[in-house]
Hints:
118 residues; alpha/beta
Amino acid sequence: xxxIIEQISRDELLGxxxxxxxxxxxxxAISCTGKDGFELSYSFDKxxxxxxxRLNIEPDAQxxxxxxVYPFAFLxxxxxKELFGVKIINIExxxxxxxxxxxxxxxxxxxxxxxxxx
Length: 118
């Protein structure tokens, strides 16, 4: 299986995602790592070719949701938003911080705020 990593800007994400969808690629996963900002990897597959779109963003940067192109992306995006604190906007089905119950607001993010009960 061939694997390609393509570094893109957040402004390119929706356009590139739509082109991949129209070319027959399926969304495999969205993953995130964070330390001094965030690295988001969007993995797509077609005919055993794994294509990864990779973004590096600052902690306060906003990223558009791709759930308008791949509807089930809302699960990955809600998880990344809640666990890392990435500011993903326009998620088709946004749980607004209620997908998981955690004692820390963004346990894998750049800040460790305690989640309030209210």
